[in-house]
Amino acid sequence: MADFVKASEFLYVGNAADTKPTGVPLPTHCWELDTKKDYATKDGTNWVVWRIDPSGVIGALDDAAVTAVGTVASIIAYIKGILNQLAHATYGLSAIKTAIDAIVPAGETEVKTSNVDVNEGSLATLARAGVLIRGHVDIHRKSLVNAVTSVLNMMFDEGAGTKAYDMSAQKNLGTLSGTSLVWSTLGQGLTSAGNDEKVALASPFTATTVISIMAYIKRGTAGTIDAIVSTGAGTDLANFILMFGSNDKLTFRYTNAAGTAYHIWESTATYTDTNWHEVFISFTFGTPGSLVVQVDEVAVAGSWTAGDGTAATYTGGTQVTEVFSCNTTTPGTNKFIGTIGEVHLVNSIVSLSDHHWLRELTRGRYSL
Predict the structure, then answer these.
(1) What domains can you pick out in the chain, each with its CATH number?
(2) d(CA 110, CA 98)
């Protein structure tokens, strides 16, 4: 008999005859290699079985185990640990989804699980881990929007084809166009050479008074205008643009409500490397002090270099939303060169704590 061995921050492995740890942080779990049983704990010391069948597929929870683990909150905390490990694995989310699909029974669809409220959902709904994992990831992204009417969660993990799918309730389909958009390996987004490429949304995401944006990006070259995501109604009529300027500064810009002048914020720092970065902003249009900008969860300093952020944004005309591009400046000079891993747009202010959790769920795809 030996002690269980720590395999990661929240995972110990060993055999049934070995001694499980005590005094460990939640949501640590123990995996018995010989019995294929997974154990959960509510206090870091006492362990109960999270049942596993002989094939290693996660099955339903015992009623006794649910009672012993304790509250729904305890179980959710345990699940978050599993999700963090999945997010930091070497596999893309598409590979994880494939594995989950193999164990979710017919009729248990993503549409169904994505409508579950994990804070009030029944344990019967949580009983099958495949449904639970897929549902919880979707649910968490929904928790970021707090019942707002417009949101885009585009993961770019399809791996093939000419369509990019929106995971949000809006189901806003994106259509790929251009000559050099290439799906990346391991579900890590789309890569563009910066010619005429773009992903155009079926319905525009038009911000009105507030906006939050999160994106994973990897620039391919410095010194170019790289538009990450935008909505606009034609030349110089931008509802919003998140981009890198030709000066390599992270830039957020929009046109005033009258359509007569740009308001442009630029970072002080420049970004010339070709590494993965996670970019986040939130802004209440007309309130310059409300602007929050982070790169890799570190605050970014900058200033308004045109206008001052005190104007409302332009919402007129025929609005078009594009990823990799924008239709508000000269075509062909503003295409993103590099790879975009995912884009999340929300028409409310996403708190830094909610942003942190979404980043924790997704950053492992990019080794961040």
Answers:
(1) 5-143 (no CATH), 151-366 (2.60.120.200)
(2) 12
Euclidean distance between CA atoms 174 and 153, whole angstroms? 11
The answer on pLDDT for 81 being more than 60 is: no
Going from the C-alpha of 5 to that of each of 41, 83, 263, the distances in angstroms are 16, 21, 56
Asked if residue 119 has pLDDT above 60, the reply is no
What residues are paired with 198 via a beta bridge? 177
| For range 215-240, the mean pLDDT | 92
The helix (H) or strand (E) run that includes residue 94 is helix 93-103
Phi, psi (degrees; rounded to nearest 5) at 273: -80, 170
What is the three-class DSSP state of 241? Answer: strand
Q: 98-107, 113-122, 172-181, 232-241: which range is least confident on average?
A: 113-122
Beta bridge partners of 270: 249
Rounded to an integer, what distance in angstroms lies between the CA atom of residue 165 and that of residue 163?
6
**Higher per-residue confidence, 297 vs 89:** 297
Distances from the Cα of 250 to the Cαs of 6, 213, 339, in angstroms? 41, 13, 16
Among candidate residues 331, 334, 306, the one with its CA nearest the CA of residue 246: 334
pLDDT (0 to 100) of residue 28: 81
- Distance (Å, rounded) from C-alpha 86 to C-alpha 182? 25
Nearest-angstrom CA–CA distance, 13 and 290: 47
